[in-house]
């Protein structure tokens, strides 16, 4: 037997197996997406997202305190306004009395060490359910869209968010937000995490049901990337790095591991995030319930594949589970 043929000696023991990974999973690599509704005392289970709820501001302490005890370090807030007047500009997005801004202020007080990120988009707040603004001819209006997203991002930064994360995919929004943060005195106080390579995926259904954010007409194919578009994804990542993004994200995660690897190559000096989206989470839970695999084993296998591809930050609805499953 050739000497070079023998590999098993390098991983025959659990400890030497643990040395084979480039990076070991730790709790601080997980960011928990949470849904905040404008019914203050609500705790409403989301049927399409097993184990996840829409929470009112008055229930956030009861919801998050046990998770903080277990090592939760960061959340990303998604507003789910059920009683607001949605308009063409997504007016309620930066309502100072809205659920997101109220939650930022409360969480800063309740959990001073928690890193609070906010998703920035208009789809949950706009009458048309799209992520940008439209021109009179029905096409997306790039300049006003980027400006409106920047306005909302600055409002969240002013409320105390540590990070703003625009999931809208409007062209030029990263530059617009960075400019607004700098001019507003938050350039060195608020992280800009860009959903740089975000695809028009079929895996967002459970989220849209949870957030009531499905488009009222058409789809998002003219602003979210085509799933086949490796070149566009690479160009979007490079663009956002040049426009001042502090963190680059790829979304969804599992079907786009090659894009995560590209992002690591193109933005090697940036932290790299990925979002295991609602449909991925629901699919993994459904497979376990169907007896296809053990849930914990599969959850680890998916998340470890994101790390193998180059991720340092993982947005996943499995975050509470990993707080139980990981030692540190
Ligand atoms: O978990 C998920 O499915 C996330 C969905 C995601 C939130 N950032 C977007 C999906 C979509 O509706 O296109 C929301 C877009 N602003």
Number of strands: 10
CATH class: Alpha Beta
Outline: globular
Low-confidence stretches: none
How far the N terminus sits from the C terminus, by CA atoms, comes to 41 Å
Q: Count up the helices.
A: 11
Mean pLDDT value? 96
Number of domains: 1
- CATH fold-level topology: TIM Barrel
- Helices and strands, in order, run as HEEEHEHEHEHEHHEHEHHEH
Biggest sheet character:
8 strands, parallel, barrel
Radius of gyration: 20 Å
Question: Beta-strand level of the residues, as a percent range?
Answer: 15-25%
Please outline the helices and strands.
Blueprint lengths: L13 H5 L11 E8 L5 E3 L7 E3 L4 H10 L4 E7 L18 H12 L4 E6 L21 H18 L3 E4 L6 H11 L7 E8 L6 H7 L18 H13 L4 E5 L5 H10 L5 E5 L1 H12 L5 H15 L3 E4 L2 H7 L3
Parallel strand pairs: 1-3, 1-4, 1-10, 4-5, 5-6, 6-7, 7-8, 8-9, 9-10
Antiparallel strand pairs: 2-3
This protein binds 3-(2-aminoethyl)-4-(aminomethyl)heptanedioic acid.
The site of 3-(2-aminoethyl)-4-(aminomethyl)heptanedioic acid (PB1) has 13 residues, from helix 6.
Written description of the protein model:
A hairpin with a 7-residue loop joins strand 2 and strand 3 (about 55). The radius of gyration is 20 Å and the shape is globular. The protein has 11 helices and 10 strands. The longest helix is centred in the middle third of the chain and has 18 residues, at about 140-160. The mean pLDDT is about 95. It has an 8-stranded parallel beta barrel, surrounded by 8 helices. Helix 4 packs across helix 5 (about 175-185). The chain has a single domain, classed as TIM Barrel (Alpha-Beta Barrel). The protein has helices at about 15-20, 60-70, 100-110, 140-160, 175-185, 205-210, 230-240, 255-265, 280-290, 295-310, 320-325, and strands at about 30-35, 45, 55, 75-80, 115-120, 165, 190-200, 245-250, 270-275, 315. It is about 35% helix and about 15% strand. The protein is an alpha/beta fold and about 325 residues long. The structure holds 3-(2-aminoethyl)-4-(aminomethyl)heptanedioic acid. 3-(2-aminoethyl)-4-(aminomethyl)heptanedioic acid binds next to helix 6.
């Amino acid at each position: 037997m050739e000497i070079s043929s023998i590999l098993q000696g390098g991983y025959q023991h659990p400890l030497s197996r643990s040395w084979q990974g480039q990076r070991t999973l730790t709790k601080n690599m997980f960011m928990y997406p949470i849904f905040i509704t404008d019914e203050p005392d609500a705790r409403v289970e989301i049927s399409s997202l097993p184990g996840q709820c829409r929470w009112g501001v008055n229930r956030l302490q009861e919801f998050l305190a046990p998770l903080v005890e277990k090592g939760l370090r960061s959340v990303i807030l998604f507003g789910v306004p059920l009683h607001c007047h949605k308009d063409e500009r997504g007016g309620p997005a930066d309502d100072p009395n809205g659920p997101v801004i109220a939650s930022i202020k409360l969480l800063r007080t309740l959990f001073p060490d928690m890193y609070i990120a906010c998703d920035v988009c208009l789809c949950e707040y706009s009458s048309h359910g799209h992520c940008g603004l439209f021109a009179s001819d029905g096409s997306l209006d790039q300049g006003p869209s980027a400006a409106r997203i920047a306005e909302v991002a600055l409002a969240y930064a002013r409320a105390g968010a540590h990070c703003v994360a625009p999931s809208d995919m409007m062209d030029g929004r990263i530059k617009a937000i960075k400019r607004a943060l700098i001019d507003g005195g938050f350039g060195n106080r608020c992280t800009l995490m860009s959903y740089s390579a975000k695809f028009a995926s079929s895996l967002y259904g459970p989220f849209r049901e949870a957030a009531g954010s499905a488009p009222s007409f058409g789809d998002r194919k003219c602003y979210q990337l085509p799933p086949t578009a490796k070149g566009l994804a690479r160009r979007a990542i490079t663009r956002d790095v040049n426009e001042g993004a502090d963190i680059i994200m790829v979304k969804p995660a599992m079907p786009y591991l090659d894009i995560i690897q590209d992002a690591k190559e193109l933005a090697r000096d940036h932290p790299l995030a990925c979002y295991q989206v609602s449909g991925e989470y629901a699919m993994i839970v459904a497979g376990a319930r169907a007896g296809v695999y053990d849930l914990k084993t599969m959850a680890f296998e998916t998340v470890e594949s994101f790390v193998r591809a180059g991720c340092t930050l993982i947005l996943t609805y499995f975050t509470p589970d990993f707080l139980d499953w990981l030692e540190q």
